[in-house]
Amino acid sequence: MTQITAAQVKELREKTGAGMMDCKKALVENDGDMEASVDWLRTKGLAAAAKKAGRVAAEGLVGLVTDGTKGAVVEVNAETDFVGRNDQFQGFVTTLAGIALENGGDMDALAEVAYPGGEGTVAEELTQMIATIGENMSLRRARSLSVNEGIVGSYVHGQTVAGLGRIGVLVALESAGDHAKLGELAKHLAMHVAASNPQSIGTDDLDQEIVARERAVLSEQARESGKPENIIEKMVDGRMRKYFEEVVLSEQVWVMDSDKRVSKVLEEAAGEVGAPVKIAGFARYALGEGIEKEESDFAAEVAAQAGG
Questions:
Q1: Where exactly does CATH 1.10.8.10 map onto the chain?
Q2: Could you give the CA distance from residue 45 to residue 39 in angstroms, rounded to a whole number?
Q3: For the chain, where do the domains classified as CATH 1.10.286 start and end?
Q4: Which CATH number fits the domain 57-146, given the four candidates 3.30.70.3300, 3.60.40.10, 3.30.479.20, 3.40.605.10?
Q5: What is the pLDDT of residue 305?
Q6: pLDDT tens digits, 151-180
Q7: What pLDDT is attached to residue 179?
Q8: Residues forming CATH 3.30.479.20 domain(s) in the chain
Q9: CATH class for the region spanning 207-247
Q10: Tell me, what's the pLDDT at 308?
């Protein structure tokens, strides 16, 4: 067997833009022949897919699935919302959510799982879709939740088809209470999370560096009032309580009844389901959040082409 060097892999990657492991496989399959390896990658659609990799993919779908005490949510991105209506793409996202349910939310591990009914891994199936559909796509993120006793509920906002949409939320509830009533509560909580976008379940779960930074900013703002330090401290404490009410799930005002907080809703729910209820975790994926999208001036592009 021909020994493949790192320099050969680097050269092939520069020629085609394909992934490092794909380049190495191509060289192995073709005994180190560079041109044959290029053709091999093109035949597999890998070189063509790589050329699309530089394009921003901020559309696509969020998909989720639940099964009693466990659930999983994934985000797969594409360049346009048109792809989100493609049956093949929808099937892929649904399948990936099912794989995440069984294998956890590690994206690197998920990419290497054999794709059901396919001829390779999840990553290879995605590559084939890129070549077929003609848009850059990416497996962005995944997460799974589970409880020993209770339920994992869900909600999809902007639903395209069942389990797929623009915002996907999972809420895990620990409780020995009535399963049907827990399911209804979990769904309502998931709807609340979709609308209110909390950052943590309780105040202790918040990143303490973020909390410290927020307090420091509020302290500086309060000092501009010229008031004594003991008054400033009380002012900051009050503003921090307001901050927690905005970002902490248990402290937020319940979207379905502005006279209650989520903590009160859970307290009342315990009596209805017949056992204490605890939020064990939640996950909220909004499609494309955090991805820097390219803004284009269509009129300027047309004018530039007309002038050229």
A1: 6-51
A2: 10
A3: 207-247
A4: 3.30.479.20
A5: 46
A6: 999 999 999 999 999 999 999 999 999 999
A7: 93
A8: 57-146
A9: mainly alpha
A10: 43
pLDDT in tens, 26-42: 899 999 998 888 878 87
- Cite the beta strand spans of the chain per DSSP E: 59-67, 70-78, 137-146, 150-157, 164-165, 167-174, 278-286
What is the second-level CATH architecture of the domain 6-51? Answer: Orthogonal Bundle (1.10)
CA nearest to 173, candidates 283, 65, 284, 281: 281
Task: Return the residue matching tokens 């609340």.
Answer: 192
Q: Confidence band (pLDDT; 50, 70, 90) for 186?
A: very high
pTM for the full model?
0.75
Query: Following CA atoms 106, 108, 114, 118 in sequence, which dihedral angle do they give, to the nearest 10 degrees?
Result: 110
The secondary structure of 187-217 as a DSSP string is HHHHHHHHHH--SBSSGGGS-HHHHHHHHHH
